[in-house]
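Sequence design from tokenized structure. All designs in this work follow the same two-part layout: the structure record, then the generated sequence. An example of the structure record is given first.
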């Protein structure tokens, strides 16, 4: 019995809360003779015009207060962010091709050098002597060929064709030996392969270099190549010469523009990203190779319909928005394309400038009448004060008429 009483009390409480929040349903009002609006009897509303609704139901006729905003167009800026490291547009490691003792160096760090400039000189005494021997043999071979040709020109038969041919062959071999001696002598001088700035070097006079030893590094920093990784979803936005914005902690607040020069032809199977290289001009030598850059790539779409995210409502059929159609709410399907902060870019069959419900859409049903809470307030009707009738002023020579005895108040 106690359980039945408890359930009955709970049912009464729920029914009372429903009636307070939503009013008495129209069907119950007809049965009990109570109007849905505030639970008053029909006679209590006599003399008061009822709200017009599409079904004649006063509850449907009441307008729901919402916030409206016009639909606008705005491009969506998709920003890709990455972190990359810079390298010189051209860089070379100077390597010794031969072994030998260092006799002279020109390796001041951070010095700008030109291509072909001498950096290290190795001991070349042996190569110089070999060059002299090869030159002497060449001179002798040339003299022999010239003597044989003079004798053949005078008709001397002692110089045969075979002897002349062997002399010319010896001359050619001597010329080749001179060339080899020149190469060996030139290898004793290590020169800069490109123009650029020298790095630090540990080579000193008296050191002995072996074949393949790294002497110094040269960086051509007229431009930098920034290498960074972008996610797989960005491959549709990549194109050569696309502008990037790069910033580095070294120069806080400054932004350097560059352009994409190359990117990989495949996605990394582990990181699911693509490697991209961008070029940043550095004619003033302000930036150094090895700097870390925060890279941004901004891609703007065509203008799209944009609304506050609070305008989106969800149902089984998907996302939609409510629009104001002559004071009546109408639900329109909308596909969300992009979302950022409190704004969404949508694709919907809605004309630009249409008033869209941005707040209060959860209370609406199809055909609900709506009123804008943010509509400009109308000017109040100010009635002019009605002038009191003035008493007629008697003309000159006339006396003010006295009230008749019937209208005089008794004393």
């Amino acid at each position: 019995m106690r359980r039945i009483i408890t359930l009955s009390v709970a049912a009464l409480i729920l029914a009372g809360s429903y009636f307070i929040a939503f009013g008495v349903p129209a069907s119950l009002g007809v049965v009990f003779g109570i109007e849905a609006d505030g639970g008053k009897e029909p006679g209590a509303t006599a003399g008061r015009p009822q709200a017009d609704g599409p079904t004649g139901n006063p509850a449907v006729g009441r307008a729901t207060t919402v916030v409206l905003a016009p639909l606008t167009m705005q491009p969506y800026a998709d920003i890709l962010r990455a972190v990359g490291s810079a390298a010189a547009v051209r860089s070379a490691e100077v390597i010794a091709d031969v072994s030998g003792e260092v006799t002279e160096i020109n390796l001041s760090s951070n010095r700008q050098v030109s291509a072909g400039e001498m950096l290290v000189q190795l001991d070349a005494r042996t190569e110089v002597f070999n060059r002299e021997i090869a030159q002497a043999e060449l001179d002798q071979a040339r003299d022999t060929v010239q003597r044989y040709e003079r004798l053949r020109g005078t008709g001397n038969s002692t110089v045969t064709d075979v002897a002349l041919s062997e002399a010319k062959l010896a001359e050619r071999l001597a010329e080749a030996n001179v060339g080899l001696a020149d190469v060996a002598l030139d290898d004793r001088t290590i020169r800069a392969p490109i123009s650029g700035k020298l790095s630090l070097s540990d080579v000193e006079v008296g050191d002995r270099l072996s074949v393949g030893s790294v002497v110094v590094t040269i960086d051509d920093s007229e431009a930098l190549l920034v290498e960074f990784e972008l996610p797989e979803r960005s491959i549709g936005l990549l194109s050569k010469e696309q502008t990037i914005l790069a910033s580095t902690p070294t120069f806080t607040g400054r932004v350097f523009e560059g352009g994409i020069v190359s990117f990989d032809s495949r996605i990394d199977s582990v990181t699911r990203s693509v490697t991209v290289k961008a070029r940043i001009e550095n004619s003033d030598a302000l930036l150094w190779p090895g700097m870390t850059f925060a890279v941004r790539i901004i891609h703007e779409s065509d203008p799209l319909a944009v609304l506050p995210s609070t305008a989106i409502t969800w149902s089984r059929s998907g996302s939609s928005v409510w629009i104001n159609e002559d004071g009546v709410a109408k639900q329109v399907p909308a596909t969300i394309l992009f979302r950022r902060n409190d704004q969404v870019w949508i694709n919907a069959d809605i004309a630009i400038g249409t008033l869209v419900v941005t707040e209060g859409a959860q209370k609406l049903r199809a055909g609900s009448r709506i009123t804008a809470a943010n509509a400009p307030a109308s000017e109040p009707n100010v009635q002019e004060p009605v002038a009191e009738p003035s008493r007629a002023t008697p003309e000159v020579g006339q006396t003010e008429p006295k009230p008749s005895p019937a209208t005089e108040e008794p004393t």
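Confidence is low (pLDDT under 50) at residues 35-60, 377-411. We note this feature because it recurs in several other targets discussed in the main text.
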